[in-house]
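User: I'm putting together notes for a lab meeting next week and I want to include a structural view of one of the chains we've been expressing. I don't have a solved structure, so I'd like a prediction I can at least talk through. The sequence is below, exactly as it appears in our construct file.
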Amino acid sequence: MIPPGSTIGILGGGQLGRMLAIAAANLGYRTHIYAPGVSGPASEVAARWTRGHYEDAAAVAAFAAQCDVVTYEFENVEVSSLLRLRGIHPTPRALEVAQDRVIEKSFAADQGGRTAPWRAVDTLEGLHQAIAELGAPAILKTRRFGYDGKGQERLNSPERAAAAWAGIKGAPAVLEGFVQFSGEFSIILARGIEGQIERWDAIENVHRDGILRTSRAPAQGISPEHVEQAGRLAVRLAEALDYVGVLACEFFATDDGPVFNEMAPRVHNSGHWTIEGAVTSQFENHIRAICGLPLGSARLAGTSVEMRNLIGAESDDWQRILEDSAAHLHLYGKGAGRPGRKMGHVTRVS
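Assistant: Thanks for the context. Below is the predicted structure for the 350-residue chain, given as structure tokens.
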């Protein structure tokens, strides 16, 4: 067990790190942020901050040596920089799986999950072949470093292959065949050092332009049987990785059952509602897990919860939002809003 008063190192300086640092402080821990930026949402609320690149293994090791346990809020960290570190959760293997869509999809299938039909694509010629096998419409996604709709190109017809390939700059990719789905949902769980698991209610998500707009819990209109199937898969993935911390898995809801989309080896945007909407938030349970503490209950604090992301200039409307006495406003301290940038979120508990 890592006792309160110890230092938790966090790789990444964004809003997830900010909320982790706040949760850690509430439990009596100090946090030390490592990130390449000059400053960021996390460094503003942490006890210490070190600027460095994730690829600099020596600098990452020196940072980790100043911490009692290390975690990450950002999955695009260089795995090779973490392999020799002691006291890091979740395991670097989870990062290795989540960073590469080919590895991730194969791993999910090995654990009994069903994915969209897909093909690995390394050349434009390979893309044409994949389209011939999977058909169109389809989505071309870079194997690595894609998030919030970045690194993705939609192909409505085979004729758009060259433009899509240029759009991802010829990076190694996967082509995903079209899936007819009625909704999107996520399963978020926390797994402790001794294998104990707390799982929050399934979360119904609405995306726009590849960016999460709203999350609602519990998910409505999705078969409870299919939710349970997805939940069991998430548990199998966590156990196969000997995972410690919060794990998020995203699914498409289809008539034939859940289709695994992707996993995030960290706290997740679709779980922000848990700060006010659950007995224990995803952030607190992540801190509890990596420090070897008992996990808190993931039960809903009300009958239902809705979280809405504030994108770009929407955060400028903070005064009107606060006029709603039921609104819980979180602003990330990012300054002026840019189009497509997550600036905060607002949660309402029923």
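A couple of points you could mention at the meeting. Residues 205 and 215 are 5 Å apart (CA to CA). The longest strand covers residues 245-254.

User: Perfect, that's what I needed.
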